Structure formats: C-alpha cells, structure tokens
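Exercise 3.2. Students should predict the tertiary structure of the chain below and write it as structure tokens, then compare their answer with the key that follows.

Predict this chain's 3D structure.
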Amino acid sequence: NLKTASILIYFIGKKQMNGMRKKFKLDHNPSVLSFREPRAFAYPPGHPKPRGEILLCRAYARPEARRRGMGIKDYESYLIAHATLHLLGYDHTTKRGTQRMENIESLVVR
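Answer key:
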C-alpha cells in the first residue's frame, strides 16, 4: 500500500552545515543530514505532510564524490537516496541494517 509523500530538500552552504554540526554535536562535517517531520506539527487542511527534510551541503559532498570516483550529480543522488532511507526508518547501526541500506541504494543509484 503505497502512499504519496513529499520530502523537502535544501541545498545549504558550509556555514549553515557547520551550524548544524555544532548544534547536534557531530564529530564530522556531514555532507547530508535528514530530519523526520515532527508528528505533532499541524499543517493547514489539504496541505500534504512532508515525510521530512534533507539538508545537503555541496561544499562537503564534492570532495567525497571525488574520493569515490563519482560525479557530483551521481553522488548527490546517492546522498538523497541514503537520506530518504533514513526518513523511511532504515539505519546502518547494525551489519544487517547497513547491508539492507546498501542493497536498496544500489538499486536506486547505479
């Protein structure tokens, strides 16, 4: 049973991503972050409730793409797919979870 859902994607700069890194006390410079939409947020009638938000920082994604031998657009597609899986409840905190995410990502980004 598939439902229509939306995801908000924001391309942000280094300064904004560094602010997020500090706010969430991350020990690395993330190229992408995802946040589930708060369930209690009241949207106007008829307004579709987004599944969540993805923040993508090209300044951090570019060197990662080069290290992986990928073009930036392909790498951004991968990052968006990865972040979307997090919004859908997948994680990579276990070997099994990592394998599941990688299998799905390989279907989405070739």
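Discussion points: Residues 32 and 43 are 26 Å apart (CA to CA). The chain has a mean pLDDT of 88.
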